[in-house]
Amino acid sequence: MMEKVILNRGREYATVHRHPWIFSGAIREVTGSPAAGESVAVCDAKGTCLGYGSWSPASQIRVRMLSFSPDAAPDAAFIRRRVAEAVTRRKDILAGGETNACRLVNAESDGLPGVVADVYGGTAVVQLATAGAEFWKQEIAAALMESVPGCTGVWNRSDVDSRVREGLSPQTGLLAGAEPPELIEIHEGAIRYLVDVRKGHKTGFYLDQREARALVGAYAKGAEVLNCFSYTGGFGLAAQAAGARAVTHVDASADALALARRNAALTPNPAGTAVDFLVADVFKQLRRYRDERRSFDLIVLDPPKFADTKAGLMRATRGYKDINLLAMKLLRPGGILATFSCSGAVTPELFAKVCAEAAFDARRDFQVVARTRQAADHPVALAFPEGLYLKGLVLRALD
Ligand code: SAH
What's this model's pTM, rounded to 2 decimal places? Predict the structure, then answer.
């Protein structure tokens, strides 16, 4: 028998409107003592069943909804179907031949809270962030093996910090099929990347910037490009493939740049782009360039998350303002700044405001030529706006 979670009177609004999170304060009563990750029936104060979710006893988000229908209680077949449906929604991305890597399951926005799955060639990589995701681990792995075309193995990269809030310890290792190769070669159009699913960031790579990388490539022909926070090459490789005059990749991680160097050698270089790799702190490097009076035609700023929570927002906006102001001063007239924020707490409106303030302080005029979001394989459920985390602006300096 499934245990029941009964909500306080008047606290059913979010659940009725299909928001997947139920906070501890909304709960009046729980029958029995459900185990971590187990499914519970969620009822309003009158006892009407609103659906089913996964129980997270250690987290402030106590329940994450899996089903909003009283008739559809989650079981193994339900979870497998959800995974298969999410994979099917991406089949055109993979079948198109443009790329052999994409996100397959985007957590809440694909109806599977806490579950992220990406594919790199024949290897699926999962990141399970919640008790419910952990509970269904084997079903998720089996469903990926079954539904992902050409899948040879499922690797677990559940070493995310957020698991602590769920009372879960980090976990990595093989979940199904064969061990992945040490490095997996993927492609995005002409660009080639080597991906390390064991030690790389996230599940190994920043798939969420695929569309933005292509967009930035379109401004790169003949340009002298500064690719800040390059990771394994990303935007700079797109610029190289598009015929940039020169590309300088800057990152604090020597390992990331070592891979960037290999990726640059694998990626076409039709214009003989001069490529440079600099292990440095971007905050310091931009100041060094300022003091040297250097300038660039195209600058990319794709920093890591500066804010995790609303509390960290002040510090984060100061960080964004600082690097954007410095970069704006380094741009040649008519130059392009592609600037991003992956902090969920920073809204697109706030990010645009911070950039406007930076432009004001730099005493330069800019126009917005494009606004970007996380790529389409990282969709955001309309009922779950929290799913939007990555946004960007492509700005042109007018003078
Ligand atoms: N643009 C990349 C992803 C960038 S991820 C792509 O398209 O794939 C952010 C990167 O910033 C990481 O590689 C991290 O090593 C680097 N980083 C974090 N803080 C840094 C700092 N202060 N200076 C330089 N690099 C930094």
Answer: 0.97
